[in-house]
Amino acid sequence: MTLHAWLLGSAVAVGSCTVAYPQEAIRPNGCLPDNATPCLQQAIDAAAKTRGNVVLPAGTYLLKSPIALASDIAIIGEPGAIVAPSPDNSEAPQLVYANNVSNVRIEGVVFDGHGLLVPHETYMITLDTTKNVVLAHVTLQHMPGHAINFVAYGSGPGSGGNGIEDSVISDVGNKWRTTHKLFDRMQAVIFWDESWTTNQGNFARNNHFENTGLDALQISQQDGFVAEGNSFDLENGERKAIAAGDYGAGIFVESSIRVVIKGNTIRGAQGNGIDAPGLVDSSIENNTITEAGQAGIGIFRDYDFQKINSSNVTIKNNTVTNNAIWSASIWRAGISIGNGTPADIKISGNTITDTRPKGKKTQDYGIDVVNSGDVHTRPRGLVIDADNDLAGNQRAKTHGL
Asked: Which of 99, 151, 242, 364 has the fewest CB atoms within 10 Å of its CB?
């Protein structure tokens, strides 16, 4: 088990670097049952002095205010270690915060929002301008707001090598279930760079996402992001419960470069399986996408103010079947390309079909180019290789090309 390696003081990879931790492990003492923040913070501060470990024994640690991370530490939860907001922390139940720290690993901890209603844009964990901060084998659950935000603001030093792996993200961003307001649908895990240029080498690997309000994994203004081996089980009845013009994706990646989306399984996304506006010099490969409300894969112009056209994107060896199940969706294909002027999109080796019997098919086309409003899509350099399997879609193999 990974825990033993940390406690024995091994040299362990954190993000892109290797950090050696001493044998000594600090266990928090004197935690109050209704407020464990002071004792956890004391343990973190002590560990930071020696690049040590904070070990959380089994139990529930209720926080009235967030704990602040320090550089060069590990926080290891033994089985049954749960960190949650105290009942009177509902105004802003943030649990962990970091600013300008590096080389941190959080492992084995369950972060539980306890379903407390929260203000909009509240995060369980915020990691601001960090490097090589990794969460592994953690659980993020029952948070009506967002689970975690990896963010770099403004023109600062940026962040990189951060990620989440081998973890579970469940029942996050669903404040809308109580308020029935569109505004209260929230993303689960967010990687976002306000400066557009400094978030490099972040990742999400081998995680399981289920039951999220909006996009399960949002990747914004990233360079070299890797989303690999994740599974998404996202059917939660949202389309039937609340009317909207659009719904959340499994993976939403926008205005980013050199992104690899590989080996993910996405089922039941309320919107597009993979929603990619403004994606450049990137690849989408070996993913399995089924039963999305809208397109399995959507390649678009950036939806915000930058108007970045997707370009130089390779889509290969994916299985994209039985999507477009939301009857009101305009994106009704396995792969939809729309808005702006995308360029140099290569589509090869994919199986893009609807395998259901006639009368139950909803995926109209294998590949569709869709124009909307006054924006006309004329793909330049679009290559659709003959090795794509496009048979079995409801209406035709391709449309609008």
From this structure: 99
